Amino acid sequence: MSALQAYVRTTAPRNRDVERIGPFLATFAHDSDHPMLNYAIPDDGAAPSPAEIAGLTAAYSSRGLLPRLEFFTEAAPALEVLLVTQGYALERRIPLLVCGVSTFVPRPAPTGVTLRTPSSDADLLGLRSTQNVAFGASPEVSDTELAGTRAFGDRAVLAEDTTTGSIIGGGFALEIVHGTSEIAGIAVAEPHRHRGIAAAITAHLTHLVHTRGAPTAFLTPGDLGIATVYRRVGYQPAGECVHLSLTPR
């Protein structure tokens, strides 16, 4: 678990401002106040004092951001209780799923769907817009979002309807660090769900990182329903991730 938390500590600061506050690495998106892009990550075994938690809270509040943390509970088992005593509340508790080479199960795309690497900015815009809508955001894609999506290179994949040419889903594999990669952003447009597309996207990206030298791929599903999809690809429970934020007063 320590290795996975270290992976997040390494990759989350990419393209963000960071500040070290006590046993926390606080990250801040350059031009977005979205809570999922602004959060702190604790050190292993973090047991901060009330003053250190207050310092973290102030760092986000002073920027007009929601004070928020994401972490694997086994990496800092005492932290959740300490945060709650200082006014933080649990947003959600989600499983951590891991897939190794030996447990991986291939899942081809269903008939009428092709998986491919984006080859143009139009592809990237379509992919990111589809993801935004699937996650409840605006279909509009900012220049920053486009640049961030472009940075994934061939670690991005989109699902295309072969009849209409429409982009109907996609996802990313994050960079490989010390033999580990995170699979993220798996999304399928509402009318095309329950066809096995999400499983195929996940399998494609998982196989990609396995063949590039990452024996461990992991992800944190947004809900238990999609977790079932990932298990069909060979992902297995390995712990849990919690998201906590300061309760409004």
Our Rg estimate from Cα atoms comes to: 18 Å
Q: What's the story with the biggest beta sheet?
A: 8 strands, mixed
Q: Tell me the number of helical segments per DSSP (H or I, 4 or more residues long).
A: 7
Strand order of the largest sheet: 4-11-5-10-9-8-7-6
CATH superfamily of the largest domain: Gcn5-related N-acetyltransferase (GNAT)
Question: Mean pLDDT, rounded to whole units?
Answer: 94
Q: What is CATH's topology name of the largest domain?
A: Aminopeptidase
Compute the separation of the termini in Å: 34 Å
Shape: globular
How is this fold's topology laid out?
Layout: H1 2-11, E1 16-21, E2 24-29, E3 40-42, H2 50-61, E4 68-72, H3 79-85, E5 88-100, E6 113-116, H4 121-134, H5 143-150, E7 156-161, E8 167-173, E9 180-188, H6 197-211, E10 216-219, H7 224-231, E11 236-246
Parallel strand pairs: 9-10
Antiparallel strand pairs: 1-2, 2-3, 4-11, 5-10, 5-11, 6-7, 7-8, 8-9
Helix pairs in contact: 4-5
